[in-house]
Amino acid sequence: MLVTAESCTGGLLAAALTSVAGSSDVLERGLVTYSNLAKQQLLGVDPDLIQRDGAVSETVAAAMADGALNATQKADLALSVTGVAGPAGGTASKPVGLVFIGGKVRPAAAVVQRHEFQGDRQAVRLASVEAALRLGLELVSVRPSS
Relative to the CA of 11, which of 17, 92, 126, 127 has its CA 20 to 30 Å away? Predict the structure, then answer.
């Protein structure tokens, strides 16, 4: 079972999964945690972590994946997405298109991928969903059998 924690994709990852019939067999829940407060309240992301590294960071993506799994007993895979979709909001160190995608399979540590996507807001968001799905497939394919 899978749980998603999304920021810049705003639920597109969960929507992509639920567009397939039978998705209730694999998707336990999807959490849209767009604001920093939502990340803290729903996922337990430490506000000091957000303050130190920013919401768009490797550490926050990992914490989002951890928090998503902690929010459910049923899921054993979490995918998280945080980034700058644009067209505004980018900086020199965190440009538009910068996205961190986290993935975690119980009980292993979270893994995070850094991406710098090109294009408009929709292109960045769709590329983020595709990359998150690829990460999820990678994590499931290397998961040891129990």
Answer: 92
